[in-house]
Amino acid sequence: MFKILAIDDDESFLEAIKNFLQYKKYKVTCVASPFKALDLLKSAEFDCILSDVKMPGMDGLELLQKIQRLHPLTPVIMISGQSTISIAVNAIHQGAYDFIEKTSDSSRILITLEKAIEKKSWAIEKQNLLFGISEKYEMIGHSQQMQQVFAAINRVAPTDAKVLILGETGTGKDLVARALHNKSKRNGQKFIPVNCAAIPETLLESELFGHKKGSFTGAISDKTGKFMMADGGTLFLDEIGDLPLSLQAKLLRVLEDGEIEIIGKNETQQVDIRVISATNKNLEEMIEKGQFRRDLYHRLNVISIRIPPLNERRDDIPLLAKYFLHQNANTYNKQLLDFSPQAMEALKNFNWKGNIRQLKNLIEKISVFANSKTIQINDVFSALEMDKKISAISHTQVSLKEEISRFEKDYITRVLIENQWKIQQTADNLGIERTTLFKKMQNYGIERPQNNTIKDK
After folding, report:
1. Over the stretch 376-406, which tens digit does the pLDDT of each residue have?
2. Which residues lie closer than 8 Å to 97 by C-beta, 6 or more apart?
3. Helix (H, G, I), strand (E, B) or coil at 357
4. Domain 312-444: which CATH number of 3.40.50.9100, 3.40.50.300, 3.40.190.10, 1.10.8.60
């Protein structure tokens, strides 16, 4: 049963509307004072609110604004016995769902009420959907660097300004793009991502702008391009630095005119989109080398957001690691609660060249093979060894000297962590002098975490 709140200083009208709506199976609460209504709304929720315009102490439009702050999704229908066009227009402009005269027939009130409640249900469904999306693409971090990123997103998202996202591979540039979309006025429209590096150059123009059947060999049917798919929403051009020069000129024209030209169609078509782009390349260097257009760069780079690499935000590693661990615990139906201090220290001291993506994949490996609720340091090292073997197979071989140095650095770091950074104990375990250990730590750039002190025992 839907709950309705009726607010009016005319008690005879309240009695009439209550009897009518209760007969139609609505649960109706009547209040004769706007102040009492606000007190009630602080603790109660309604599916729709009917409010008079003219009331002593506070008019209906002022009450409307206060209701919207308390319950932004609840529709408010304004009702008045002294209606004018200007009052009605003003009420709608200020956010009222509709405006009805008290002399309106009962069917008009009933139909408006039904549509208002239906609108609220759609609004709640949309909000829940967006909340689910935001959880799926949640960004984690309490470091100062990430707080600056979050602040930039909150400032820029409500605008339609073009944004260029800068950052290394694996830092989460796509998450920033989705956050900008989800927090924008276009959040109910489509978010269309395009990876410019993943699509062959010969197909990229068709992928972006679409084509008509028969416009070229292999065009056996019409194709809708990404620009048309994103009309009204957001187009995310990932790896924009890989866009060929020939297409850079066409993209520039779209950004300037808001019009696209479908391949095989002799007319342009208007699109309304917000463009967000991202790259892990230095576009300014590419401009100097003639690989990227300067005018396009300035069009895309109205506002830039740089995402710091994980090695610059090590304070976030414990938070991220636990977040991914709990995700995997649910995925693999395992009890995985936390990391031992030594395991967490190993994660904090690792060189995360692959950034968040590498950390996430590593925690998944750890989760799959873990045999206890608390992840131990050996679980971390085992997963890292798996990564090294995969890397050795998939990457170009390095010199023997480089490989030995890399192994020695990793091994010394591992023994230091196992011995809780006790220098003498570590040196004894390694079979070397303390001074030698200090020199090797200096040469390899091995530094203790800030919350630890090097111990001599």
Report:
1. 988 998 888 765 544 443 444 556 567 667 7
2. 48, 75, 76, 77, 112, 116, 119
3. helix
4. 1.10.8.60
